[in-house]
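thought: fold this chain, then report.
action: predict
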Amino acid sequence: MIDNKNSEIILCSGIKLDKNYENVLSYNEEQMVNLCRNNSIYTAREYSFLGNTNYIDIECPYESAMYSNYVAFLNPTFGNKWMFAWVTDVKLINPKTSRIFFEIDVFSTWYSRFNVGQAFIEREHVSDDTVGLHTLPENLETGEYIIDNKIKKNGYGKNDMCFILATTVYPYITQEDGKWVISGGNATPCNVYNSNLSGLEYFWYNNSTLGIEQLQHTIQAFANSGKSEAIYMLFTCPDSCFEKVLEGNEDDYYGSWGSVKQKQGSYTKLWSDNNTSVINKPSSLDTYVPVNGKLLTYPYCYILMNNGNGGNAIYQYELFKDNSNICSFLIDHAICPGASIFLKPYMYKNSDNSYNHMDGLSLGKFPMCSWNSDAYINWLTQNSVNIKMGMVENAFNIGTNVASQNVTGAISGGLGLISNIMQLQNKRDTMTPQAQGNINSGDVTYSSEETTFTCYQMSIKRETAIIIDRYFSRFGYKVNIVKTPNLNSRSKFNFIKVGGMDELISGNIPASDLEKINSLFRKGITIFHNYSDIGNYTISNPIV
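observation:
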């Protein structure tokens, strides 16, 4: 036994530090001593310390010592270094003496000597939570998706449609002996539409009473004149695809039909800041405003663009790099059977000041009309509009794609247990199965004026958003990068998990304790910066 005349011991009660090191303190030696003094039940300047043992004999009655759970002691034999430890047991030696068994708290004891290096950091509380900066998959259960907002593109309704007559003869008509007949000669043999040459000439007729009546008279005139074969095709097309040229005199039909001219600059910037209906990047999910910016990125929220005929495309908010908070698109138009309309995102995936063609979406084809022409061409044209849009299955199985990712590597400790709960337990589709039956519904969607671009702003449900948000608040984000971790980037607490067998901490620390400290970081550890906050994971924890 060594008699330590200059030693000191502080026996404490109610210290909220756990032996599993789930929660630790970023307190230096002086702060830890003050914490122990503030929670002491016994202090002494002299005590008996047995070298290389895990107990101390103190002159403290057992009825007082039995309530202790933490101890700090200063022993000159160890270079006047304060040691901090948990009380593991208390034994009665005699009426005045108690034996305190302890286990060293290696984190608090050596924290002041930490040299923090670089290591592979799996998770941490980041120091910059800008939306879109952190997008690594988390492999979390996202649940069912809901529609947070719906924006429908106008301009493709019945009142916006024209009937296009493609013919090799000018469809000018007159009446002879009470019958409508063709009075026009052969059309121009070479016309330009969509910057391509065509042997046909297009004529438009409004989808109105006068326009349809004029079209009926014209078709009858072709038949009465024995020129039905000159009508090559008849189809519907939005008037935004071409420029109208009025034909005829100032009679009842003037303004209801005419010839088609190629439109210059045939595009529209859709849902931009110049329009009343815009696609704003979200600030909430199903009315819930998240604390963590990562929840405002894919797969927790996204744009599902639908073309009204089974075609879909997914767009991620964080990939729009426009300086505004708006997601903009451009629409190209071209006149052709069924119409050719193509939507493409603006400043998407680093396409600065331009439009991304790779991630575009075509609008569903508009209906063909009946006409007298070659039977094979008629069949071919009518069936070409029912091409299956291959994106629908991917779009409506987003939840399965997100949730079927598997976590690689074993995760230990409290994080591992919670992560297993948070991960998907079974695969599922996140959209209604009826969506996959929309492939060949062009006639139905056209008649109900649904053949248009519709933006669905999708998000996870409020319940799921709250669960994931609190998970991020507790354990930070997956970062998977070699770096010096953020041990003090947050005002209240920081979570750090080191991957593999990397050594993060070095310093003037005994080898066995140093290895244990590094193993704690590999398990995942939460460092609180204020003792009063320990265990409170829902407290506001802003970036310093």
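thought: worth noting. The CA atoms of residues 14 and 81 lie 23 Å apart.
final: tokens above.
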